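Customer ticket, subject: "Can you confirm the structure for Transglycosylase domain-containing protein?"

Message body: Hello, I'm evaluating your service for our small team and ran a test protein. I'd like someone to confirm that this is what the system normally returns, since I don't have a reference to compare against.
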Amino acid sequence: MELMTRAGLEKTKKYVRAAVILSLFLSVLMLIGLIGVLTYAKFQGPPPLAVPQSTLIYGDDGKVIGETNTGEKRYWVDLEKISPTLIEATISIEDKNFYQHYGFDLKRIAGAALADIKAMGKVQGASTISQQYARNLFLTHDKTWKRKVSEALYTLRIEMNYSKKEILEGYLNTIYYGHGAYGVQAASQYYFGKDADRLTLAEASLLAGIPKAPSYYSPLKSAEHAKNRQELILDSMKDDGFITREESEIAKAKPLKITGEHAHQTVETAPYFQDVVKNILRTELGLDERTIEMGGLKVFTTLNTKHQEIAEKVVDEQIQDESDIQLGFVSMNPKNGYVTAMVGGRSYEESPFNRAVQAIRQPGSTIKPLLYYSALDQGFTPATTMKSELTTFTFDDNKKYAPHNYNNKYANDDITLAQAIALSDNVYAVKTHLFMGQDTLVKTAKEKFGLTTPVKKYPSSALGTSGARVIDMVNAYNLFANGGYKVKPVFITRVEDWSGKVIYEKEVKKEQVLDSDKAFVMTHMLSGIFDPKLNDYSTVTGIQIRKDATRHYAGKSGTTNTDNWMIGFSPQLTAGVWTGYDKGKDISLVHDKLYAKKIWVHFMEEALKDEPVKAFKPTKGVVGVAVNPHNGKLATKDCPVQRFTYFVKGTEPTEYCKEHLGKKEAPKEKQPAKKDSKPWYKKLKDWIF
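Agent reply: Thanks for trying us out. I re-ran your input and got the following:
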């Protein structure tokens, strides 16, 4: 008996030892497995936290003008820009121990398992905020073991590589609140019409209850279910010490207004402009289509929404509905090249072809200021005269070319450069072009004024027969308006990624490419298109809109059989308009030929309405004198017409006009001002001694 008892005890000890060894072995295996899982998670590194989000495009005032439309509204905001009450409500109802656990709440898991066993079914969830975040970011919502294991691994990777603040911020920016709203910012705007940082306790507690089942707890689906869950959350917040009983009761009783509208329904502002912005993101910044459409970018642009509204309104008012005329329009800030408004056609829905940047049309006489700037470089002045008469030019092995003025009118006498610009004399332009050499305009247009389409080496190029883009021509006039500084059209000033990191910022570099004195002289001559003192065989080309122009403007119109242009500027703004038919049909109706000028002047007047009236400020190297505009000589008191005209110092006329003196003796010639070449220290010495 005793032997049998001993044998039984030995056998029991063997089983116990085996059990202990097995337990130790399993524990070691589990420990090794845990270490292996943690090592794997650490080795995999931090998972990316970005999710598909709407890219937002902003105007220069910081307001959204456009949004990529993927059917889902997602906007990322920093945790600091989320209402603290919403954060507390979410933690209270979703994960009370969020700040204490490491991704898995073991106590809550055990409690949920017991509840499920008692109910013989799935009745209680135990997922932490970290687990939900992992699921929302990377996984489907199926219930397979493979998905659960993957979720656990993603959760570990998130917890091991990100702070609790980053996890909470990411979670609140990715959870689904129903009705296409992903993340708290989109949800706040949809349900309450406000940003997430402005939510009240009542609003936050209602919003925090929706993600559990958006189709059930959305107040737009069931006000009763949403209210019941809101009260449950407020009770939970009170029990957790986030709010007092009084605050809970006040929030429960407070009526809420649900808007049910997304902040940015459709893209209606400046669609042609936005197309250019997206193209720049692709071609110049090198972003792929998916990043542009779903990368959650914030693209800050130069668009002035006031200017854009004015441009679209003026186009609608000026062009008759039954007309098939199309247009391209651009306005820019001449100081930095910022594009403030753009109209690429009369209807984006009917034709997204952007005539402001894509169409290449003959600029007509708007090319002449580029030609005449080169002439100033070669010794011309506003008083330089040439004969305006029907002329046949011979060039390139006996080829003939006979340019015509508008309506075949000629002075049949000498006219000045200032008049040639104001009257748009074609003969004067071609003579100047051939005198300087045809290469001059070709090089000047490209190298100094930045035209992206080549000017061909033809005599007729002086009259704008080589095609150009509206955006390039408007930018070329910026150089006159800003005193000769090189600028390029700018659409985007800054781009941020989904997390707020700046991935692009525009640098403005100033480079003087035109002589500032000659640029001012050119600007003053361009103001002559509105001045009847320059009338001669024809009236100045801006006479039709002179009565509408209440400010100081400089500009030039351009006309071909198929194209009408008007480009001009004030000290604060440059704008240009092309009008014509897409298929290059001749423009025959008189009122169709005036569209460009009328659109331009009405836009400029309305866009600058609240701006101070500024004159073009003369540079230090110019001098103004009164001249007879018909011959360019210094005017006397007997001259019936006098015009104050600016010249580069040392090039002003010295001979007085003698045409109206009769028997009077002509005044003595003025001596040109001598430039003082003494250095400053010698001037100081002369002044002292």
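A couple of notes from the result: The chain is about 40% helix and 10% strand. The mean pLDDT is 86. Feel free to reply with more questions.
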